[in-house]
Amino acid sequence: MPCGKTVVGAHPYQVKFSGPATGKTVVGPYGNIEDRTVNLHSDLSPSNDQLSKFTRLRRLLTGEGTNFIMEAHNGLSAKIVEEAGFDGIWASGLSISAALGVRDNNELSWTQVLDVLEFMSDASSLPILVDGDTGYGNFNNFRRLVKKLCQRQIAGVCIEDKVFPKTNSFLADNQQLAEIDEFCGKIKAGKDTQPDDDFSIVARIEALIAGRGIDEALRRAEAYAEAGADAIVIHSKKSDPDEILTFCRSWDHRIPVVLIPTKYYRTPTQTMKDARASLIIWANHNLRASIQAMRDTCATLMRDETLVDVEAAVAPLNDVFTLADASELEEAEKVYLAGGPQVEAVVLAASRGSELAELTEDKPKCMLNVRGESILARQVKALKRVGVSDPTVIAGYREEAVDLAGIRKVVNADYGSTGEAASLALAGDALSRDCIISYGDVVYRPFFLNLLMERQEDFVILVDPDWKEHREERSLDSRDMVRLSVPYDQAFDGGEEPHLVDIGENIDGADGEWVGLLRTSANGSRKLKAELERMREEGTLAKADIGTVLKRLVKKGETVAAIYVSGNWMNVNDLLDLAQARNAM
């Protein structure tokens, strides 16, 4: 038999398992979970990440204790399930159907479901147990489905013993069940077809849903186990678990039992563990959570006609890029599109930050910890997400403490007597390509960099218009106050894009504060580098800050574009700033 089971006795559950890792053979009743899993949990077994998806799902079904898998319905939700730490995915038929705007009544063909599953399997390394409804027809349809699922590394399929086309279990009473012999033939056909011995077929018993009672459910469970099912789901739409628990006691775990407590969700998980549930499925909650979140967002936008309140409540845009692994493509482009633009970065991190007292005695402020990572490490991680590898970090004070993988460190030995412009001038070749320039003490949300990268101008800065509100909350660097061509309250009227008019101290009618992030195109980088060299020749470079350089460029007719951003960043100048950053960022 392709499922790897060999009958050695008269009892239908008397089977033999040969463990590939240990070579041991265990003979005993199929329901004896300790016997059945000796080889799977041997110290000589391969680690979980070395096992196939098929074997990993089989372990979830047959291993000790109770395991949990989470619903997903597309590639994105599959990634989120893996990100959350679950060991497996339930590809819900209800959720996949609903996400595509159709009913859970086999209105999707099995090939359409297969297309969704392929994206899910590619997106996640987790084993997937798919809700296969009734198997999409008779035994012949089902065995073809099994073959195609295995080709896409789908680890298992759950089929329910109702007639095709199915009706969702929670919608109608007196649902029509399949004949036992017909359903057993379907299970046998699947087991005989599966190309991988560890592919799992889970038989879902709908007798309780149809009002047929415990005895009918047990009769069907016996038959399905004998036909070769690897596990059974006992399903109920009652709000209490009594009939489920009664079944589990009578069944006595002869093959693994899977529970889906959607309706009896108030039941303590420990109760289900005590009933020896092998696997618990959280069956449709990602879909339902997304429906509520989308409704809330739509209602807010319909009512308020502004993104101001919505933006803080939704996932940052950069999360979308991260989940889609955009950085991998960017790295691949560097290899395969050698002629494509390269993005550099320069982080100005030479100063101590004396206002931070003893915290910067042995390290510069760029290395201070903010929620588990240094300020510099957070910047390097954010830069990597937009395709920057090995950013240039201009160190100075306690430069030996600037010890971080994935950076190119340049030391400004004269940090004590020079300013930011002199440090920037040391960046060398970084100022010959597209470049992001950052203060080393700025904590910001990663999506700030995406805003900069979307623009094509030679010079682009980010400006916070809410600087007056922040004045009471934290220290402000008065050198970075700016006046723009378009004030914040007029910047979204579809007219002129804001650009820098003036920057520095004592700016009359300031429109905001420069965040400390500057993007230059390759052409802009060359212009900036040339301006720094002119300042060196003039003798004005040593004491200049970046604002001075930008002001010179503006006076020479260069346009420094500006993007308004509100909040989501912190310039760490003193202890209060650091505390605010640790709380809010």
Descriptive report:
The longest helix has 20 residues, at 285-304. The protein contains 21 helices and 24 strands. The protein has two domains: 46-283, Alpha-Beta Barrel (TIM Barrel), CATH 3.20.20.60; 318-584, Spore Coat Polysaccharide Biosynthesis Protein SpsA, Chain A (Alpha-Beta Complex). Helix 10 links the parallel strand 10 and strand 11 (279-282). The strands form five sheets. Strands 12, 15, 16, 17, 19, 20, 21, 22 and 23 form a nine-stranded mixed sheet that branches. It has an eight-stranded parallel barrel with strand order 4-5-6-7-8-9-10-11, surrounded by nine helices. It has a three-stranded antiparallel sheet with strand order 1-2-3, with no helix packed on it. The chain is elongated and about 95 Å long. Helix 3 (75-84) packs across helix 5 (110-123) and helix 7 (180-193) packs parallel to helix 8 (213-227). It has 585 residues and is an alpha/beta fold. InterPro entries: ICL/PEPM (IPR039556), MobA-like_NTP_Trfase (IPR025877), Nucleotide-diphossugar_trans (IPR029044), PEnolPyrv_PMutase_core (IPR012698), Pyrv/PenolPyrv_kinase-like_dom (IPR015813), Pyrv_kinase-like_dom_sf (IPR040442). This is phosphoenolpyruvate mutase. Its EC number is 5.4.2.9. Pfam families: NTP_transf_3 (PF12804), PEP_mutase (PF13714). It comes from Stappia sediminis.
